[in-house]
């Protein structure tokens, strides 16, 4: 199923843009309102710049099958460099300019790059000392800064390259779908990065098939905030741009303004982003008068019952597949009874929340991790559709996705076209029956060619029949939806032999307004423990309501200061005990071993900047454990 037939027989991703330029010549393709000056490029203008960039590279000696390292972050120039390098016949290795210099040096060296494209002089300065060890022939700055003329490696800025490209004709390079398009190095949580080899065919599979998930309209606004170099955002951008959408770049600083200013129809994000939006809304609600808070909470409670009844009636509740006909009939009656109150809540409360989000959202596309149940519920209640997808860098990345017509909350949806999913036993590798939990295997045209120069790692990841081992645990519903339950390597094994998947419990606990982030610990212990980053704003509000004058230390306070602060006073400690107990027990599938017996509060949030999260905002569990090992040991000794 392809909305644009001209794409059907393409064998190279770079061929998409000539077709798009003809179909949508005057539609704005890329818009960066926050750059100085602001940038707007129509599809016709974008394709012209791609050709210029590619011709400039060829004029400087870049040959087909060369490798180019692209070290930069979101901007129209990133896209021009990405697709311009492919149009020239090269493959690129991509990474953020914010990444550690040693990691960047490793990628440039490991990818066998002969050309380096960097965001600006600052980025080049960060890794310049490594460049002499690598046989680089060319460096391109995506800025207009004046290059260092004394640099022994030929260096041009963006404008110089584009001027050169304008004076030379692009020599077309024919690429097959099996040819390498890009190397994306998995940030992972442990070990050296591995370069996932994604072919043109891998990426084109996403362009040709993601319309099975959403069908955007020409000219739809798409707000882009995730790293463009990451496989999830990247493939989404390729697809949405192939459909004639307008990609609007934003960032954390301008996000709240841009969402109201541009009123986007679509947005791609990770659970942490949706959680931050949710928490911002909750904060606004907490600042309302007591009467307004009670009214809002009344309607949310009504709507919670309404959406659950609707799910049961429509056989779309993950926990009620075995509901009887009479149960579904009763749920249908409840839906009819509650619908007027839910509608009133929409008019008085939810519509205002949607307006604060721009008022036009048709789709929030969520990936890069599981979406907590309370977030799934919240966005359904306010009628902002969230479509959760699943996949990995190694699968280009989407293998499964929920759709508007089949949005089973709590799941990652059904396989997208031409994709197979198989669940196998963790120990034996044998396929298990539907509904049984095991390791998720994926097979399809989007599965990578392998890890660059790592045949042993490739053989370990992809079996001879083409099944890729995701390392994720999950099960398949009767309707062929995939439900992810955790990571095989993240499993915590208690000393009683019980295996605990931390992610679902963490997702349940961060529903508490007082818990911003959390990581479970407890390997080989009697019970689970947790490292908790508290929400100090919510705690302050709670303290005022309790007539407590609470004071909290700053993020960089010493451990002794934190322990002696109000955070460790009995009222706050009791509050967290109650919150953890309630949220864990309210979680579907609760077991006694899920209880969190001990916890420690830490003030420094987990982030990619401090090395405790990946660039896609997944907690690096081994890194966090190592950093707080003494605290964790003390937690279980007390």
Automatic annotation (TrEMBL):
It comes from the Bacteria. Its EC number is 6.2.1.3. GO terms for biological process: fatty acid elongation. Keywords: Ligase. InterPro entries: AMP-binding_CS, AMP-dep_synth/lig_dom, ANL_N_sf, Chloroplast_AMP-bd_Enzymes. The keyword Cytoplasm does not apply. One of its GO terms (molecular function) is long-chain fatty acid [acyl-carrier-protein] ligase activity. Residues 20-452 form the AMP-dependent synthetase/ligase domain. The keyword Protease does not apply. This is Long-chain-fatty-acid--CoA ligase. It comes from Crocosphaera watsonii WH 0003.
